[in-house]
Design brief:
Oligomer: single chain
Number of strands: 0
Radius of gyration: 25 Å
Structural class: mainly alpha
Number of domains: 2
């Protein structure tokens, strides 16, 4: 799929607003956390040295949240902008799926003894990546480029798997109120018309967002690990009363 058509629609000025919004939001969250901790007496210390050191939390915690916001903002905004671009380029996504299904139908005899995974991987290798003039040998790419194409293939693979396995016959046919038998017939003959209203686009968007959600969970998990440091220190302070 030509992702350039999607990326071309991204409003790069929106990143300025995104940085401002998320930095402000996470800064407010950090201030609220500091206020709550102070009200609960979590920053009270008995020794002079401990009282001086604990004041660093009022600087470190806001900076920690700001740094996280700086990393989070561009990724979240990219997700939003790509979703908007997908909506604007429904034809691109639909044509990509339609070409895939047309190929599978035309090669139906050859596909009878092949698993779903083999069908999709074979299609990507023979129809997409072989024909793509910008795809070179893996050794010609740096780490970022290899990661980009690996992620690109994963998204396209999971998207096509979702269509081939159950989304079309089981989910979409019930959605439009037709039998599975009729759905199979439409699957083989006039799928483009069946999905031109956007069901396939929704499937693709869901697959795209799945990778963003995975990355966000990882980011927040790492952030939580960092917050364990002051959390453990507070527990030690209460335990040993220093």
């Amino acid at each position: 799929m030509d992702y350039i058509k999607l990326l071309a629609e991204i409003n790069y000025l929106s990143y300025v607003t995104a940085f401002a919004k998320w930095i402000f939001l996470f800064l407010i969250i950090s201030i609220v956390i500091l206020i709550v901790c102070n009200k609960l007496g979590l920053f009270k210390r008995r020794t002079k040295t401990a009282r001086i050191l604990v004041k660093l939390y009022y600087v470190i915690i806001p900076i920690y949240f700001i740094v996280f916001a700086v990393k989070y903002a561009p990724i979240k905004n990219t997700q939003i902008e790509i979703n908007n671009a997908i909506d604007k380029h429904k034809v691109v996504v639909t044509d990509f799926a339609y070409r895939f299904l047309s190929s599978i139908v035309s090669d139906s005899v050859l596909c009878q003894d092949r698993s779903t995974k083999e069908i999709v991987n074979g299609y990507l290798d023979n129809y997409i990546y072989k024909a793509d003039s910008i795809i070179a040998e893996a050794s010609d790419y740096n780490f970022i480029q290899r990661l980009f194409y690996k992620t690109k293939r994963k998204i396209e693979y999971s998207f096509l798997i979702g269509i081939l396995e159950s989304e079309i016959i089981d989910e979409a046919t019930s959605f439009v109120g037709i039998s599975k038998k009729t759905g199979k017939a439409l699957y083989r003959t006039d799928l483009y018309d069946l999905f031109k209203e956007g069901e396939i686009v929704e499937i693709f968007r869901d697959e795209m967002n799945k990778y963003f959600r995975h990355f966000f969970r990882l980011m927040f998990f790492i952030m939580f690990l960092g917050l364990l440091i002051p959390g453990v220190e507070i527990i030690l302070a209460k335990t040993f009363k220093y």
